[in-house]
Amino acid sequence: MTFLDWFGLGDESALVRASFRDRKKVMSLLAKGVTPNAMYLGHTALFNAVWGDSPSIVSMLLHYGADIDQSDWFGLTPLLVACGKGRVAIVNQLLAEHANVDQSDMFGETPLIFAADRGHTEVVNLLVAAKADVNKVNHDGESALYLAAANNHADIVRVLLAARADINKVSNAKETALFIASKKGFTKVVSALIENECDVNECNEKGISPSLIATMHDQYDVLELLINAGANINQRSKDGFFPLFVAAARGSTDIVALLIKSKVDIQQKTTTCSISPLLIAAANGHESVVRLLVWACKNWSEEHNWVSSAYREMRPLFIKANAPLLQQSLETGILAVLATSDHLHVESCEVFVPPENDATKNYQTPALAVWFRHAEVVRLLVHVNKELGVSQGKNTPLYAAQETGLSHAHLIHA
C-alpha cells in the first residue's frame, strides 16, 4: 500500500472502490499490476465484488490471485458475505475455488449460520454438499439449526436435520431449536423437529419446558403438537410454574380446555406459595377459566378441602393486609372465593356456586365481600352453600357488619 492509499488516492484504493461494479476499471488496474488483495477502509477488492453482486469481477480478481479467504476488519470473508446475501452464483464460484466453508467472523458466525439465519435454502444446500460443519455455533452458542428454527425456515431445518445436525443442541441460554420455535409459534418447524424425534421436554436454564413457553405465549397449535408428541404438561419450571397455572393466570381459556382434555393434573399448585390454577384464575377475574376448572374437578368437596389448605398457608398475608377478624373466622373459607370478592370479579364468584346446591338454605356471606363493601359480590355470594362461607357468630365480619350498620349488610337477607 502506497502513501496515497492511506488517503484513498492511490491505485489500490481505486481498485477496491471499482470492484463494487466497475469491471473495465478493475481490469485496467489489475493489468497495471495493482495487487488483487488491495484493501481500503477495512474491505478488500474481492469483498466489494461479492457485496456488489459482480460475478465477473470476482472471477477476474480470483484469476489474478486474490486471497479467497482474506477477511475484512470484522472477520468477514467473501464467502460469508456471499452466503449472508444469498448470492448463489458467487457462492458456487468461491466453493469451486475451495473457499474455507467453516471460517467464522469475529462473532463466530459461519457461512452456514449466515445462510440458515437468513433463509437462503439453496445456499444452505451448497454448503452442506461442500461438507460444512452443521453443528458449529456462534459466540451465543447458536447453531445453524437453532437460527433456522428461530426464523421459521422449516425447509432449512429439514435440510440440516438430514445432514445430521444435533437436534437437541442447546444455546448458551440452554435453549433448543424446539424451544425457540415453540416460543414463536412456528408449527411447521415444530412438526419437523418432532418428526425427527427431538426431546420435547428439554428445558432452558430457567427450567422452562417447550410446553410451558408455548403456554406463556398463547401458542395453542404448538402446545397441541407437543402434547400429541408426549410432552410432560405437568413439568414445572425452577420457579415452580407449570402450563395450567400460567394458562389460568392469563385467562387462556382454549389452552386450559386443551390441558384439561389432555388429563393435566388439576390439583397441582405452585411450589413457592401453593397457589392453584383455580385461585389465580379467580383472583384475575377469568370467569370462563374458573368455570372450566371447577367442573373439571371430579369431586367438589375435594377441591374445597384443597383450596382451604392453600388458604391456611396464605392466611398471614390477609392478616398483614389488615383484613379484620380473618385470623379468627375464616379457617374454613375458600381462598379462591375470597380473592375473587376482594378483586370485585363478580362473574368468577358466581361460578363457585354448584347449580345442584339448594340456594334456599344456609345463606352465608364470605367475609371480604362485606368488609370491602362489594355489594354485587355480596349479592351473589349469599347464595353459596355454607361449606363455601364462614360460620355465623359474634366474631365474624358478617356479624360486625350487621352490628355497625355497614351499607351492604342488609343484602344477606336479599
Order of helices and strands: HHEEHHHHHHHHHHHHHHHHHHHHHHH
Mean pLDDT over the full residue set = 78
Name given to the CATH architecture of the domain at 299-414: Alpha Horseshoe
How large, in whole angstroms, is the Cα Rg? 33 Å
**What is the count of DSSP helices, taking H or I runs of 4+ residues?**
25
Strand content: under 5%
Distance between the termini: 96 Å
Q: Give the biggest beta sheet.
A: 2 strands, antiparallel
Please provide the count of β strands.
2
CATH domain class of the domain at 299-414 = Mainly Alpha
The strand line-up of the biggest sheet is: 1-2
Q: Which blocks of ≥5 consecutive residues have pLDDT under 50?
A: 3-8, 298-304, 306-338, 346-414
Anisotropy-based shape? elongated
Helix content: 40-55%
Stated plainly, the CATH topology of the domain at 299-414 is called Serine Threonine Protein Phosphatase 5, Tetratricopeptide repeat
What structural class do the secondary elements suggest? mainly alpha
ANK repeats: 41-73, 74-106, 107-139, 140-172, 206-238, 239-271
InterPro entries: Ankyrin_rpt, Ankyrin_rpt-contain_sf
Organism: Thraustotheca clavata
Protein name: Serine/threonine-protein phosphatase 6 regulatory ankyrin repeat subunit C-like
